[in-house]
Amino acid sequence: MNPSFAEDKIYHIYNRGTEKRKIFMEDKDYFRFVHDLFEFNDKNNISNINYYFDPETMTVEYRYLKNSKAERKPRKLLVEILMFTLMPNHFHLLLKQKAEDGVSKFMQKLGMGYAKYFNKKYERTGSLFQGKFKAVAIEEQAHFLHILHYIHTNPLANLNYQHRVLIVEQVKFLEDYRWSSFPDYTGKKNFPSVTQREFLLDFFGGEKKYKEETKDWLKNRTKNLAKIKEVALD
Fold it and tell me: Stretch 100-117: mean pLDDT, rounded?
């Protein structure tokens, strides 16, 4: 059962495809989900009629359609998206609620919006995700420190023989992994408009310090993961 969501509290959010199926079949699907992370994080009603996402730019961009005179209201965030990682059949988010019932409203819009896109594109029907998203409040400092690295190092599961790969090579792999906020946290521009990073970067002392903290955490990754079983949600 998910917790009751409260403003300014931090939550680890997780969901995966029904029957563990892939929810991202190609790069354009990942781009679409990143687009939706930005687009649906708004108290205002969203209309995609006047805005579109162009994956060919390799960045998240929001533009008026040609000949459109519509103006977009300034966004009113439902949540702060502190970080995210997308994997072939699941995703992880770290969210801070900024509006009443903000997490629930954001996740409802995100889940329904992406599922509608996916089902139409791949001519399928039925649920895309394995039930309602899972969430856990991050309240203990020890959990807080570990969950950040847990989310950002998740893509290492795609790295063959990771136990034989040097730490510096693992970090390089994470910096090159497009479908995560990790590059933005280490100074490599990826999807900077999607996440609100000031809080965590101030906490760690900047991008270089965060990268070094990640290296240190990876040295004892197996032991560190064991400390957060109850908040990891996999």
Answer: 96
